[in-house]
Amino acid sequence: xxxxxxxxxxxVLNTRTTVERTPDGYHGIDDARVEILAKAMEKYGNTExxxxxxxxxxxxxxxxxxxxxxxLEKQGLRLxxxxxxxxxxxxxxxxNYLEEHPExxxxxxxxxxxxDFREYPKLWERLLLTNGIERAEFASxxxxxxxxxxxxxxxxx
Length: 157
Ligand SMILES: [Mg+2]
Prior knowledge:
- This protein is α/β, with parallel strands linked by helices.
- The chain has one domain (2-156): Rossmann fold.
- The protein is 34% helix and 17% strand.
- The protein has helices at 31-44, 63-74, 90-100, 121-124, 145-156; strands spanning 2-7, 47-51, 81-82, 104-111, 127-129, 137-138.
- It has a 6-stranded mixed β-sheet, with helices on both faces.
- α1 crosses α5.
- The longest helix is centred in the first third of the chain and has 14 residues, at 31-44.
- It is globular, with a radius of gyration of 14 Å.
- The model has no long low-confidence stretch (mean pLDDT 97).
- The structure holds magnesium ion.
- Magnesium ion binds at residues 8, 10-11, 111-113.
- Pfam families: HAD_SAK_2.
């Protein structure tokens, strides 16, 4: 069975108070937060990492994208894919990705914004709203089992 984490970057791996900067001068990525993600994923086991963040719009060779990849690599993480959105419909992008990857049976969404997730109960129940990954909370009052497990992993990391 395969599972996936759908990853936003800003508000998950950093916050507005993050001091670190990217090569292009934007809010950078906190190693401590990537480490929490890596540990939570390791406990979960066999989990793919799919990028949903606007960072996905960058060219792979862009300095900031390479910075993201290297920050993840430092903790042994690798992006396995990315979603495609239209008009910031991030949830729709995830649904399309799931349709193209029927092998993914379980998933959790990490994001600091709600976008269109609430329109799709399947996504809403798997959304962890963050303010930095260490402050993740269930979006739904009835979260899916994998979301409960993953939040526990985060808290333990
Ligand atoms: Mg964000």
